[in-house]
Write a structure and sequence with these properties.
single chain; eight-stranded mixed beta sheet; two-stranded antiparallel sheet; binds cytidine-5'-triphosphate; binds calcium ion
Length: 230
């Protein structure tokens, strides 16, 4: 939709969106990362601003994306940096959307110097420590009336299909809304389009047809607006 055709139904609403993929350093030149492009989070921030919201975008690494117009943008790198920035911005937020791909683990040790290979030393083994679950912390610290939204990229497996996994994750995470993207086979990561489901803690399940990431953003903000009216 053209920006001037969008409703101004987020006027005065303070929104925090996290986006992109975090990087966990191994040494000064190497990191553990992920394939998040950041496009979905940026689309969420852009559309929210177009609908009148006061938007803070906390972004980790993305493909080269311009800062969305009308948003305050904070650039971070690691999961811990994203965590600090999201919590600080969320204190006064009405809605927090965790679209970032946050590393579940970080290398237990970060070498001060570039790790070298050597013929008389054994090859290194990377030990990982668990990162904090930011979404779970947001749910635990939620202010009355604050809406917390999670994202999940799921594939089906022998334990169930995408929707089965998503229902379990929504329960486990305690978020108000969970956007579920089906991934694998070139779906979602880095592409222009997304599809999936929008699950609500009230049991609503809205299918999201394959479409531009801005379309998914509009569907999510529609759901957030009706969630805030309850
Ligand atoms: N998330 C988070 N902090 C983390 C990991 C994930 O806030 N350390 C958020 C993501 O931003 C996303 C949601 O949690 O909104 C779901 O992420 P996902 O990786 O699907 O869930 P996990 O609980 O990490 O489960 P899994 O073992 O399937 O990766
Ligand atoms: Ca994870």
């Amino acid at each position: 939709a053209r920006p001037d055709a969008l409703p101004r139904d987020l006027e005065g609403v303070r929104v925090v969106v996290s986006a992109g993929g975090t990087r966990e350093p191994l040494d000064p030149v190497r990191y553990l990362g992920n394939r998040s492009s950041g496009k979905q989070g940026y689309a969420l921030a852009r559309v929210a601003a177009q609908r009148g919201a006061e938007v803070t975008l906390v972004t980790a690494h993305t493909v080269a994306l311009p800062d969305p117009a009308g948003a305050t943008v904070s650039h971070v790198s690691t999961a811990e940096e994203l965590r600090q920035a999201v919590h600080a911005a969320s204190e006064s937020a009405d809605v927090v959307v965790m679209a970032a791909a946050v590393a579940d683990f970080r290398p237990a040790n970060r070498a001060d110097h570039k790790i070298k290979k050597s013929d008389d030393q054994p090859d290194p083994v990377i030990t990982l420590d668990r990162n904090a679950d930011i979404l779970a912390e947001l749910v635990r610290n939620r202010r009355p009336g604050q809406v917390v939204v999670g994202f999940a990229a799921e594939t089906g497996d022998e334990h169930g299909d995408v929707l089965d996994h998503a229902r379990v994750k929504l329960k486990r995470k305690g978020a108000d809304l969970l956007v579920v993207n089906a991934v694998g086979d070139g779906k979602a990561f880095g592409t222009e389009d997304n599809s999936g489901w929008l699950l609500g803690s009230d049991g609503t399940e809205i299918p999201i047809p394959l479409g531009a990431k801005a379309e998914l953003a509009s569907t999510l903000w529609d759901a957030v607006v009706s969630f805030m009216k309850r």
